[in-house]
Each structure stands twice: as structure tokens, then as C-alpha cells.
Design brief:
Length: about 270
């Protein structure tokens, strides 16, 4: 996970946190449980990530959740944890922009969000999130983004509120924004519900960082974060070797899973 801090147009600091999480399934009292072991991690506690395979928040319809869904929860909570550490750093009042949503999709994720909100209120830090994609539909079944784009005025704009959220695990105020006059992109923008009075101030501040020609209308801090947090194919081989050394004899279980995926790749390459 990666975070960078900007003051005006200058990046003044950045931090990248890397760790390994070994995920496994075990049976306890007749229930299938997902657990993890962390290596080189100072952001999270393994005890927070013990999840029943039948947990409704990770199920896919009537099918039990996959083990990889635990990995997604761990990565998301690591992002929230590094955001909370930014608030602890000495600074003036500011704003934290998360890549994605403020929705807590799992109990432990909601716990990390609640801790972040509490720190933000105490330090007068604005918490918001920008999402590149949205599956929201209008009451007539059309894409919200397409509908807004078709009826929006020229130049940058904000549309709010689209709906009032009542889910206790989704404590956000929802809007859609276009952040640069020459951009053709519309994004979902959320701000912590208790801070909705600062919505215009937050979007104006965010628009200040949206003039990079690489992706007009998208904050370049999030562009940088995506590039720095992404793992390249070159790094993947090195990281697999490192994981093999860390896991020792347990690596054979990981290798078996990898071979199952390799079979699909081999068939795909033959097309």
C-alpha cells in the first residue's frame, strides 16, 4: 500500500508499506474458518482477520466466500490503517483521499473505517474517497454516470445528493463530480457523512490536483499511488521467491494452487 502527502502542488512525503499474508483454511468445531499469517507487517493484527467461510459479507450468492476474498479485505484494511497513520503525523488540518469507496463491506473493514473517522473528527481532517467506476443505476435502469454526462452543463460540476445512504456500514455522503473542464470522465465522490458541510471545499481542493494531461480530471496523487503500489511482472517473480523462503515447507500448498491457475493460462495461450 502507498500514500503520498501534498502541500500545494508539491509532494512533501510518501510512504510505501509492503508485507506478505499467507492465507489458509482450517476447520474449527465443524466450521470452515479462514485465517492468515503476516510477515513484515506493522499495520495489522492477525487476530482481526479470522473469518468464517460462510460469512455473508464474503459469500458469492449461495456459494461460500473464496479464500482470496480475505486477501482483498486485508489489503483494504492496510490502506485504511496507513491513512490513519497519516493523521497521527504532525501537520496542519488537511484532507485524506482514498482510492475507492467509504463503504465497509465487512465487519473488520467497518471497524477500521470507524477508527479512521474518529481520528479525523478529533484532528479536523476531512475523509473522502474517489471511485473510478460505479455500478449505480437510475430508477429507470440506465447508468448514473451516462445519464449525468448526457445532461450535465459544460465545465466542471458536482451533483449531490444522489441518494441518502442508510446502511450503518456506509457512513458517507454520495455525489458525482467532473473535476476538470476538458475532462470527459465522471467519478463517484464520497465524503464522510458527518463532514458533508465541507463537500464543496473538498471538491474544490481536489480539482486543484486534476490538471495532469496523462489523465485530465483525475487527481495526480491517486495516479502516483496506483503506479507505486502496483506490482510489475518483474517484481512478481522476485516476490514469489521471497515468499517461498518465508513459508518453507508450507510453500508446496501455494505452489499447488498456482499450478491450478497455470492450467487455465496454458489453455488460454493455445487459442
Amino acid at each position: 500500500v502507498y500514500a503520498s502527502t501534498f502541500a500545494s502542488v508539491a509532494r512533501i512525503s510518501s510512504q510505501k508499506k509492503e508485507f506478505f499474508a499467507y492465507l489458509y483454511a482450517t476447520e474449527e468445531n465443524g466450521t470452515l474458518i479462514y485465517k492468515s499469517v503476516f510477515f513484515d507487517c506493522d499495520l495489522l493484527d492477525e487476530a482481526d482477520f479470522i473469518i468464517a467461510a460462510s460469512d455473508a459479507s464474503i459469500k458469492n450468492g449461495s456459494t461460500r466466500g473464496s479464500l482470496s476474498s480475505l486477501g482483498s479485505i486485508i489489503r483494504r484494511c492496510a490502506e485504511l490503517a496507513i491513512a490513519a497513520k497519516l493523521i497521527d503525523a504532525p501537520k496542519k488540518e488537511g484532507m485524506i483521499v482514498l482510492d475507492g469507496s467509504l463503504q465497509g463491506l465487512h465487519t473488520v473493514e467497518s471497524k477500521f473505517l470507524a477508527a479512521l473517522y474518529d481520528k479525523a473528527i478529533a484532528s479536523k481532517t476531512v475523509i473522502c474517497a474517489l471511485s473510478k467506476t460505479s455500478q449505480l443505476l437510475s430508477s429507470k435502469g440506465s447508468s448514473i454516470v451516462s445519464h449525468l454526462n448526457a445532461h450535465a452543463p459544460n465545465g466542471p460540476w458536482i451533483c449531490h445528493p444522489l441518494c441518502i445512504l442508510t446502511d450503518k456500514n456506509y457512513r458517507a455522503y454520495l455525489s458525482f463530480v467532473k473535476l476538470h473542464p476538458k475532462s470527459s470522465y465522471v467519478f463517484k465522490f464520497e465524503i464522510y457523512g458527518e463532514q458533508k458541510g465541507l463537500l464543496m471545499q473538498a471538491t474544490n481542493a481536489l480539482a486543484y490536483y486534476c490538471s495532469d494531461p496523462i489523465f485530465l480530471g483525475y487527481p495526480y496523487g491517486l495516479i502516483e499511488a496506483d503506479q507505486r503500489a502496483r506490482i510489475s511482472n518483474e517484481e512478481k517473480g522476485y516476490l514469489q521467491l521471497h515468499a517461498k523462503l518465508l513459508l518453507g515447507k508450507d510453500w508446496k500448498h501455494v505452489e499447488e494452487e498456482m499450478h491450478m491457475h497455470d492450467a487455465h493460462d496454458i489453455l488460454d495461450s493455445m487459442r
